[in-house]
């Protein structure tokens, strides 16, 4: 987790400070400026600004009184029907403080609510709409029952692009007096995979070692398989040298302390850079998916990765 100091210091206080979600920000800002928002449902991957936007809305609406008019619950911790019947309903039925005629309840990870709790929430949203608005945040909107979805304006967040992560990292680096190289930003982006929270965590962990952020230092923190190492493994395999491919793979996993699933992800990315026919790339991607599934189900990672390398060897020999 990001430390509380960083969280408070860089928590956005204005809409324009939220990066990467321009269309959503414009629509939400218009609703907030009217001082009358509907129930909102924020859906999308982790680390894309859902919780931050909810907090911005509250602070813009209530100013210094925002804490008295705002209740935040993490539904993954408190997801039973009693939470909706007690905490949520008690807060929703009371009058707001200030000029805004309603309070706001933010339910983070709402897709973790049980079906019974969602049904109870549905009635609460309907009965107390005059005194309370709900902002629901989830990774998968399909796990929210249809009656709740129909009561909300739905906003779908997307993973951040490289330019958005770069803007965010450079802003933090400037405020913290960090020196960061462009190559390090590239590695941070690849390691975060568009998750702004993960990018911040990686940057903080790296900065705790040295204020000079280098690609090598970031790679050490991320502990991901380097593309060039995986390329060597696959090149050996496609050349038909299973023994050397196996030894190099074992060396990569032990030296870098990388899990089988991380190696699978690195292989999947590197497949599309291989000098082979597109049809073969598709078949190898399918084999990669099968190996990943078996690893997730509990199979030995190294055995599964060896079996995957065997598929690459056969492909290189034209027998796959």
- CATH topology of the largest domain: the name is Rossmann fold
How many individual domains?
3
Please report the total strand number as a whole number: 7
Number of helices: 15
How does the overall form come out from the CA principal axes? elongated
User: What structural class do you assign from the helix and strand content?
Assistant: alpha/beta
CATH superfamily of the largest domain: P-loop containing nucleotide triphosphate hydrolases
How would you describe this structure to a colleague?
The protein is of the alpha/beta class and 320 residues long. The chain has three domains: 153 residues, Rossmann fold (3-Layer(aba) Sandwich); 61 residues, Helicase, Ruva Protein, domain 3, CATH 1.10.8.60; 90 residues, Zinc Finger, Delta Prime, domain 3. Helix content is 57%, strand content 10%. A five-stranded parallel sheet has the order 2-3-4-1-5, with helices on both faces. A two-stranded parallel sheet has the order 6-7. Helix 9 packs across helix 10, helix 11 packs antiparallel against helix 12 and helix 11 packs across helix 15. The longest helix has 19 residues. The chain is elongated, with a radius of gyration of 24 Å. The N terminus is likely disordered.
């Amino acid at each position: 987790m990001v430390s509380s100091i960083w969280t408070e210091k860089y928590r956005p206080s204005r809409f324009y400070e939220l990066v990467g979600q321009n269309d959503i920000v414009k629509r939400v800002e218009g609703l907030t400026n009217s001082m009358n928002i509907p129930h909102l449902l924020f859906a999308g991957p982790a680390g894309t600004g859902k919780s931050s936007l909810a907090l911005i809305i509250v602070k813009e609406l209530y100013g210094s009184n925002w804490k008295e008019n705002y209740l935040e619950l993490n539904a993954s911790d408190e997801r039973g029907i009693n939470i909706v019947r007690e905490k949520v309903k008690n807060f929703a039925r009371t009058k707001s403080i200030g000029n805004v005629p309603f309070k706001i309840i933010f339910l983070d990870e709402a897709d973790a609510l049980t079906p019974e709790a969602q049904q109870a929430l549905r009635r609460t949203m309907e009965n107390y709409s005059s005194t309370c608005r709900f902002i629901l945040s989830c990774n998968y909107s399909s796990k929210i029952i249809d009656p709740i979805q129909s009561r909300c304006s739905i906003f779908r967040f997307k993973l951040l692009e490289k330019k958005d992560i770069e803007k965010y990292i450079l802003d933090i680096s400037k405020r913290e007096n960090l020196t960061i190289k462009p190559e390090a930003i590239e590695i941070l982006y690849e390691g975060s995979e568009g998750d702004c929270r993960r990018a911040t965590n990686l940057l903080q962990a790296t900065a705790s070692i040295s204020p000079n952020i280098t690609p090598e230092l970031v790679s050490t923190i991320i502990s991901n398989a380097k593309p060039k190492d995986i390329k060597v493994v696959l090149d050996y395999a496609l050349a038909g040298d299973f023994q050397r491919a196996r030894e190099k793979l074992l060396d990569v996993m032990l030296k870098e302390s990388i899990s089988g699933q991380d190696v699978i992800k690195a292989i999947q990315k590197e497949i599309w850079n291989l000098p082979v026919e597109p049809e073969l790339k598709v078949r190898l991607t399918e084999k990669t998916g099968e190996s990943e599934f078996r690893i997730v189900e509990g199979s030995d990672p190294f055995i599964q990765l060896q079996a995957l390398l065997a598929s690459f060897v056969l492909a290189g020999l034209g027998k796959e």
